[in-house]
């Protein structure tokens, strides 16, 4: 294909098509790899989340207990819990708080022209 004879508009149109195809193939490869990894984990009697050590992230957070007055000497500086605001469209175990650098799956989602609000999750608190 000789692209030197294409107009700027045609080149941009081609670029858009190439980028979309790259994203599509990348997504397909990721899905296939995820399925293969899940199958391999199942063959060993585990889930993929167990292998990756993410089972704790999926467990519901217990309701906070009533505060009991404790001596100030034992007071530990704890980070406030992070609130997951966005969930991965295909794997709800993966989330993003909306702070810091965007994960690649969010960048890919936005590059497809999809709104970020479609990824919005119910308020879920996770330990930071």
Question: Can you put this structure into words, describing what you see?
Answer:
InterPro entries: H-NS_C_dom, H-NS_C_dom_sf. It comes from Zoogloea oleivorans. Belongs to the histone-like protein H-NS family. It is found in: Cytoplasm, Nucleoid. This protein is an alpha+beta fold and 128 residues long. The protein is 41% helix and 12% strand. β1 and β2 form a beta hairpin. The longest helix has 36 residues, at 8-43. The radius of gyration is 22 Å and the shape is flat. It starts with 7 loop residues before the first helix and ends with a strand.
Topology:
Layout: H1 8-43, H2 48-52, H3 55-58, E1 82-87, E2 95-96, H4 104-111, E3 120-126
Antiparallel strand pairs: 1-2, 1-3
Key structural traits:
128 residues; alpha+beta; H-NS DNA Binding Protein; 2 domains; three-stranded antiparallel beta sheet; 4 helices; 12% strand; flat; DNA-binding transcription repressor activity; H-NS histone family protein
């Amino acid at each position: 294909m000789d692209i030197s004879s294409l107009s700027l508009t045609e080149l941009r149109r081609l670029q858009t098509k190439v980028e979309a195809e790259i994203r599509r193939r990348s997504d397909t490869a990721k899905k296939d790899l995820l399925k293969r990894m899940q199958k391999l984990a199942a063959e060993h009697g585990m889930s993929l989340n167990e292998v990756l050590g993410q089972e704790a992230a999926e467990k519901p957070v217990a309701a906070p207990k009533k505060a009991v007055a404790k001596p100030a000497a034992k007071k530990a500086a704890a980070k406030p819990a992070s609130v997951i605001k966005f969930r991965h469209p295909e794997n709800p175990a993966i989330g993003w708080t909306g702070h810091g650098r965007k994960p690649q799956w969010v960048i890919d989602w936005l590059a497809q022209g999809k709104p970020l609000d479609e990824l919005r999750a119910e308020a879920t608190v996770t330990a930071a």
